[in-house]
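User: Please fill in residues for this 207-position structure.
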């Protein structure tokens, strides 16, 4: 049975006759509306969250590694400073070793001990500030560690000047003193690192 939508009735205006026509109805298939794929959006957001999480973890790991690296560097610097402070030799010890070394040589025989007044009666009348190598070592032990290097240099210079003043530049004692001076300057340059003391050494013993 046809529905009204399939029947069309036409009436002639002159005769009044009418005719009925049947039209087939073509049913069009219904198109389903595409559903939005919210799943892909959710997966994208999940991936973004995972990427953000990985980036945050990476940055945290970098910060932790940087902090640990800084701590290790600080520990290494502290250990280096401690080792340096432990290995650093006191100035008084350096000076004592220099004087003791030149005392072992034969040319220091005239300079080790104080001049015997019985052997040289007028020595203390000529020399106002007598000094010997043993006196210099005693002064090193009693002096301030910061000033001991310059004091040692000045004392050795005084010892050589006394020998020149009393014995003369052409005497055997003065020549032995010159040999001792050369050894003393050599050992000071080897053991003392300060440029200030090197300049002071040059001024005192250049002649």
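Assistant: Residues filled in for all 207 positions:
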């Amino acid at each position: 049975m046809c529905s009204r939508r399939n029947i069309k009735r036409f009436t002639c205006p002159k005769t009044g006759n009418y005719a009925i026509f049947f039209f087939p109805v073509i049913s069009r298939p219904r198109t389903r509306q595409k559903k939005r794929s919210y799943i892909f959006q959710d997966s994208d957001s999940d991936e973004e969250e995972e990427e953000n999480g990985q980036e945050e973890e990476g940055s945290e790991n970098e910060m932790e590694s940087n902090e640990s690296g800084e701590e290790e560097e600080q520990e290494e610097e502290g250990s280096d400073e401690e080792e340096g402070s432990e290995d650093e030799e006191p100035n008084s010890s350096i000076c004592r070793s220099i004087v003791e070394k030149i005392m072992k040589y034969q040319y220091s025989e005239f300079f080790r001990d104080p001049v015997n007044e019985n052997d040289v009666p007028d020595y203390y009348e000529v020399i106002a500030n007598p000094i010997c190598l043993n006196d210099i070592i005693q002064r090193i032990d009693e002096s301030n560690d910061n000033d001991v290097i310059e004091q040692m240099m000045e004392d050795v210079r005084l010892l050589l000047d006394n020998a020149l003043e009393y014995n003369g530049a052409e005497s055997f004692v003065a020549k032995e003193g010159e040999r001792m001076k050369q050894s003393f300057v050599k050992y000071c340059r080897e053991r003392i690192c300060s440029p200030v003391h090197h300049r002071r050494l040059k001024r005192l013993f250049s002649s």
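For context: Helices lie at 38-87, 91-103, 123-126, 133-142, 148-167, 172-191, 195-205.
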